[in-house]
Amino acid sequence: MSFYTRDNYRQAESVGFVLNKARNVLIGDLDAALKELQIKAQHIGILMSLLRGTESRPAGLARYLGMDTGLMTRMLDRLEALGLLVRSRDTVDRRVVNLQLTAAGREAALRITEVAPHVLNARLRSFSKAEFDELHRLLNKLISG
């Protein structure tokens, strides 16, 4: 089924526009809440992936988080400069770079687990449980295509 046509497409009413606007609102809220840690919302995925052991290599992280490797490199540079992670060459394959949280990085990631739920819950406060579940289901359906 086609929802948009050349005649009815209005950017400000499109799903893509509204999703991007919602994303920007959440990022703004998270950036403000994380300011004391000197990190941005865009760093959350990296720090949480390393904390949870989801991914530990730059290329894998870039794929998992859906970003290009150039942006990943710049973000890793920033987090390394802040002393939140270290890069090291793999002992078996020197071409491979491994990432590891420092003690400060682990502390920052654990702080994210306290801050992010509060920020997200504040934005979702007017949702019922059923609405939250439906939003989550529909977003996952949109992502999976």
Automatic annotation (TrEMBL):
InterPro entries linked: HTH_MarR-typ, WH-like_DNA-bd_sf, WH_DNA-bd_sf
Sequence ranges assigned to domain HTH marR-type in this UniProt record: 12-144
Keyword Transcription regulation: yes
GO molecular-function terms, A-Z: DNA binding; DNA-binding transcription factor activity
Keyword entries, A-Z: DNA-binding, Transcription, Transcription regulation
Leader peptide range in chain numbering: none
Superkingdom, natural source: Bacteria
Coiled-coil parts of chain: none
Record protein name field: HTH marR-type domain-containing protein
Lineage of the species this protein comes from: Bacteria, Pseudomonadati, Pseudomonadota, Betaproteobacteria, Burkholderiales
